[in-house]
């Protein structure tokens, strides 16, 4: 099975749009139930952490349940860090297919997100490594590793920032 690069790009753009438009339920459909969603931290030697089980991560969800809980908190205003919700604008660039195998494709792409809240606009940027697979009639993310390249983050980072 091969997923065309045009379909991959369209999927990644749609996922970013769901975040920008705060379409949380639709955004969740982009993720497989067994997805691993991970944003490692930078260690003191300027290297990203390698094990979410034993080292610090900025975000780590071993499956979609964590993402669903996060969305529930955002939607029900049970997240002080997300109230009021920021306005975001995601840009996805440099989409590359790294590997293809039966049933899955590994991709790498860059992102740049502008986030506006409390009269301040912050920028987040980095690289995402994701595994996509065809699930019934749609593409879903089965693994996502987000390498945030900002040196300084002045607030709590959340799923809508990346």
Report on this model:
A 6-stranded mixed sheet has the order 2-1-6-5-4-3. The longest helix has 16 residues, at 5-20. The chain contains 3 helices and 6 strands, in the order H-H-E-E-H-E-E-E-E. It is 20% helix and 44% strand.
CATH topology: Nuclear Transport Factor 2, Chain: A
Poorly predicted regions are none
Largest sheet: 6 strands, mixed
The tally of beta strands, per DSSP, is 6
Number of helices: 3
Rg:
15 Å
Q: Strand order within the widest sheet?
A: 2-1-6-5-4-3
SS strand fraction: 35-45%
Order of helices and strands: HHEEHEEEE
Structural class: alpha+beta
- CATH architectural category: Roll
Mean pLDDT: 91
CATH class: Alpha Beta
| Measured distance between first and last alpha carbons | 28 Å
Number of domains: 1
Shape: globular
The helix content is 10-25%
List keywords for this structure.
162 residues, alpha+beta, globular
Please give the structural blueprint:
Layout: H1 5-20, H2 24-28, E1 31-40, E2 57-61, H3 64-75, E3 87-101, E4 104-117, E5 120-135, E6 138-148
Parallel strand pairs: 1-6
Antiparallel strand pairs: 1-2, 3-4, 4-5, 5-6
Short summary:
With 162 residues, the protein is α+β, with helices and mostly antiparallel strands. The chain is built from three helices and six strands, in the order ααββαββββ.
């Amino acid at each position: 099975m091969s997923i065309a690069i045009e379909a991959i790009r369209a999927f990644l753009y749609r996922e970013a749009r769901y975040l920008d438009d705060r379409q949380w339920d639709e955004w969740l459909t982009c993720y497989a139930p067994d997805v691993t969603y991970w944003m490692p931290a930078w260690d003191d030697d300027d290297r990203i952490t390698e094990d979410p089980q034993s080292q610090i991560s900025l975000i780590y969800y071993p499956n979609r349940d964590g993402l669903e809980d996060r969305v529930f908190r955002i939607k029900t205003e049970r997240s002080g860090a997300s109230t009021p919700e920021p306005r975001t604008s995601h840009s996805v660039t440099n989409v590359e297919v790294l590997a293809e195998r039966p049933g899955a494709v590994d991709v790498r792409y860059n992102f740049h997100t502008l986030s506006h809240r409390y009269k301040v606009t912050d920028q987040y940027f980095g690289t995402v490594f994701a595994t996509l697979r065809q699930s019934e009639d749609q593409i879903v993310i089965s693994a996502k590793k987000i390498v945030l390249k900002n040196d300084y983050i002045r607030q709590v980072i959340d799923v809508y920032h990346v």
